[in-house]
Structures are given as C-alpha cells and as structure tokens.
Amino acid sequence: MTPLLLDLVNSRIVYPDGPRDELADDDDARAWLRERGALGTREEIADARTVRPVLAAVIRGEAPLDALAPWVAVMHRRARLTSDGLSWQDDVPADRRVGVRAIEEWAALQGPDGSRIRPCADPDCQHFLVDHSRANARKWHSMEICGNRAKARRHYARSKERDGGLGSAR
Known about the structure:
The protein is of the alpha+beta class. The protein contains six helices and eight strands, in the order H-E-E-H-H-H-E-E-H-E-E-E-E-H. It has a single domain, classed as Orthogonal Bundle (Jann2411-like fold), CATH 1.10.3300. The strands form four sheets. It has a two-stranded antiparallel sheet with strand order 1-2. A two-stranded antiparallel ribbon has the order 3-4. Strands 5-6 form a two-stranded antiparallel ribbon. A hairpin with a 2-residue loop joins strand 3 and strand 4. This is Zf-CGNR multi-domain protein.
C-alpha cells in the first residue's frame, strides 16, 4: 500500500498565485485517495480534509498530541483465528479510516532521536519531509529547491557582511 501521511500533509500548499489543494474537488480527492489504497468514499474524503490540518499542526509543533484524540479513540484491532494462526484486523469506522491510517504512519516515524517527519527548514516552504538518513538530520524537502535557496541566502548574507565591513572602513 502506498504511504499516505506525507502525501496527505503535502496535498495543500499555498503559492503566491493561490492554493493548490489536491483534495478540493470531490472527484480529484476520490482519485487521490484511491491511488493511495483507500476507497475514496465521501466519508474518507471528509476525513482526509479534516485530519490533514490537524496532522500538519501536530507535526509543526503548533498543536498538542491530544488534537489526534478523535482518531486515536476509535483505533481498535480484532483478533481472528484462521487456519494459518492468529491474524489482526483493524476495526475502524469508515469516517475515520484515512485519519487512523495516517496517524499510524506518523506514529511509526517517531523515535528516540525525534520525529522522522518534519516541516522543511526553509521558512518560505510549506512542504513536509520524511528523513530516512541515518543521522536523522535532513532539513529540506528538496535540496535542489529549498537547500540551494538557503545556501544562496547564507552566501548573500556573508557577502553583504564582508561588503559592509569594507564599506565602513573607507
């Protein structure tokens, strides 16, 4: 199954010319969810739209973990005996299925060295990233875009500092 969490929190980005929201239109949202292993029902679309800003706020540290409580409260697993042994089946209401799956993915990215999912370090960027590096030190959702922008800003600031120092000695 295709991971959902990162795509979900990156599915609405506001650009200078306006927002790009992959879940704004019901038909687009249905297709988007189906591409990620969901059914694309009305309940799932509504759940995706509801949980997305909550998850984004939790990941950014702008909301407490308790904000996820409506989804966590309905997480239940039921044991089933089969000829192969014991298996576990999720028992989650349809109107919370997308949120529960995204929260399970989020929980799997938490660890002793911090979260593996975080906002891009570029203050002008709204994207999130999942850090798979050993050191858990990745900063940018895209080195080519945000990383290069940050390097260019630092270079510009250093050159302004040097130029400013020379200019005041004249």
